[in-house]
Amino acid sequence: MSDFINSGWALYVAGITIAGLLFCVFILMVASKRKVMANDNTTGHIWDEDLKELNNPLPRWWMWLFIITVVFAAAYLTFYPGLGTNPGTFKWTSTGQWEAEQAKAHTAMAPVYAKFTAMSAADLAKDPAAMGIGERLFINNCAQCHGSDAHGSKGFPNLTDSDWLGGSGPEYIAKTVTGGRMGVMPPMAAAVGSGEDVQNVANYVLSLSGSPHNSLAAQLGKPKFAACAACHGPDGKGNQALGAPNLTDKVWLHGWGEAAVMAMVNNGKTNVMPAFEKRLSAEQIHVLAAYVWNLSQTTAVAAK
Amino acid sequence: MSESTGTPASAATLSNPAMPDAQGLVGDDAAVAVVSLYQKQKKIYARAVSGLFATWRWSLVWFTQLLFYGLPWLEWNNRQAVLFDLGARRFYIGPLVLYPQDFIFLTGILIISAYALFLFTAVAGRLWCGYACPQTVYTEMFMWVENRIEGDRTARMKLDAGPWNLNKLWRKSAKQLAWIVMGLWTGFTFVGYFTPIKALAAAAVGLGFGPWEWFWVLFYGFATYGNAGFMREQVCKYMCPYARFQSAMFDKDTLIISYDTERGEPRGSRSRKADPAKLGLGSCIDCGLCVQVCPTGIDIRKGLQYECIGCAACIDVCDGVMDKMNYPKGLIRYDTQNGLAQHLTPSQRLARIFRPRVLVYTAILGLIVLAFFIALAMRHPFKVDVVRDRASLARLVDDGQIENIYRLQIMNATEQAQRYQVTVQGLPGITLGAVPEMALAPAEARWVTLGVRVPPESAQQAGPGAHAIQFEIGLLSTDVRGQTTASAAVSEKSTFVVPR
Question: Which range marks the domain in which residue A48 is found?
Fold first, then answer.
């Protein structure tokens, strides 16, 4: 609050609040007695010739309800933050309550996760409860980039196939989720040669997977592929240790076709998977990794 | 509160029961006194009454309370017949499994209740207040207990005025104990609509309720105890909003509890053998019983008053007196303002019931009831929500096809397992990707992720942008010969995005 207004306003609002409470009590006292005409129990006012106001008193218990609200307000403002910048004697804050609820939830979930941590990914994949938790973790944390069906899209890998860039298996997935991952393809135009050489090498790359290509250009590009082979291997099958993708399959993470391949060779690309270790606990990542690993298995069990 | 003296009701009310006590009038001016605007309420000691209308009220007490206390104990399909499971968000009512999405039916019930109230009020005044309102019903039950333990009106007044002795102590304690038990049982039953009541009963033995169960058992129990034991008529007079707007539904042909002034006045006591005509008296013997039985403490002989809840206790007691005097019954009776003024016969009064106001209320009520039941009968056995994947708008897949991702939430609104098939239409060549098996357990709701694909030619033809598509979700059923057929299709709209 103090970021926007100076503390004088807090005093101003607190003053109005207290004055308002006192005013309520004052009005109640002043208005509690009324003169009535004793003979007919009216207030003595007559409007429109014959309209009289009857004295029809409020029950006294109702007045006590009113006083209770004033007392409640005073107690509330003492215990809880509400009066200007006064934090209240309970020192309650919304952050504090959130933290307490988080701690409670963690305590409640601890035995569940303890059981899961002791299980292997293959066992977790057979546990519908674990897969249900995994699915919710995925939808809340991963689906924003990889899609709710985990098929990814351009720049965001498909997690349901068997094409893994930097390793495989649940341990690799857990490591990637925990620490993140940075995939780097350096700009290779200078190493490959002229613009025409880049085009030829792109056609050669497309020929590796049997994609439509210019076979003459591919023939010319084959020797130039030596520059790429350092990472992608002489046969273009990639190298997981270096994070170099397999170029002989039909997975085109950064776009398909001559233009897309040429753009990668010319410009390179740095692709980042962020680290989730601050958002998710190690136990959660263990379950999540098992869920993601299970997506690419043919024996996938439906989440419940 | 101000009241116009223009109506016959308030003309009679001017010397009303709210008149301050005589000792409050000591002042310098004989005509003007200063009184507190917050008045201590006088306790009303209503005399017990029996008769035709009391029997009606007791019938309704039994009917409504057997329903309220008994319903949670009934079983249906091995579950509680009526259970509002707030945690799982499923509302079981007999054969129905309702989701929060079905709240329109609750709205329907509320509208039907409101129109029924309008209709009954237009015909016969505060029928609801006098016979079926929980405030009346629980007050009736609590007063019955009070009557058993402390005795009738005079005995209770004597007991309250008397000193605290052993007799007073045990009677008061026994009454409080009985009231508290009734309140707690009511609170327990109320919670039993939201928590399975048998488990709740088991928990009650060891006082093992959860915190919210404790709160609601005690709160609802306390509200029952306080309202029916102590607040009583003050709820009707000062709290109930319905009492305030009812007058809008009254007219001069509405049946109200009426004192026949013409026949009754001048009132006065007389011997049973005396001929009132000779004494110059009306039928009213001024015994005051109609005032003693009134649960709101008014004198019906002053005319229609806003405090009157239409319980007809004064009719019952006065009819008994008329019988004893060998006078015809009905000095106080259900009659209309026009009926009294124009001396209408019962059949003439009956004919006036079919007036435009009543007919319109009836027609509207009938239509709403009809619509409600048709909607309930046509309710689908399952529900579907289609949600576009918010992360990836569209993606290019094999052979240049364009894929969009959708999440379908399928909700089984029955207690049988269900299987479904999904089809999609809206663009040429549109197909579904891999469709996971869609089988739901009874009353289960589940999210299913689906890919929808459109071939490149079709996408090009449609052009970039969002295009309307529809999902058709059919319920699969297998007949005796093992043939699978789809029935009860639900159509859900969504959009398909073709990127630039």
Answer: 7-79
pLDDT digits (tens, 9 = 90+) for A163-214: 888 888 899 999 999 999 998 999 998 888 888 999 999 999 999 988 888 9
If we measure between CA atoms, which residue out of B63, B57, B68, B62 comes closest to residue B130?
Answer: B57
Domains, chain B, with CATH or none = 44-379 (no CATH), 382-498 (2.60.40.10)
Token representation of residue B351: 């004919």
Report the C-alpha gap between A29 and A21 in whole angstroms.
13
HSE (side-chain half, CA atoms, 13 Å) at B12: 13
Cα separation, B197 vs B183, whole angstroms: 17
In a domain, A1, yes or no: no
Which residues in chain A are contacts of B390 at CB distance < 8 A?
A: 144
The answer to whether residue B18 neighbours chain A at the CB level (below 8 Å) is: yes
Classify B91 as helix, strand or coil.
strand
For A26-80, list the strands marked E by DSSP: 33-37, 42-47, 51-54, 58-59
Q: Is there a domain that residue A91 lies in? A: no
A281 and A267, same domain (yes or no): no
pTM comes to: 0.81
CA distance A239 to A281: 30
> In the predicted model, what is the mean pLDDT of residues B439-466?
90
Q: Are residues A36 and A107 in the same domain?
A: no
CB distance from A279 to chain B under 8 Å?
Answer: no
Q: What's the structural domain count of chain A?
A: 3
Please give the residue of chain B at the shortest CA–CA distance from A142.
Answer: B391
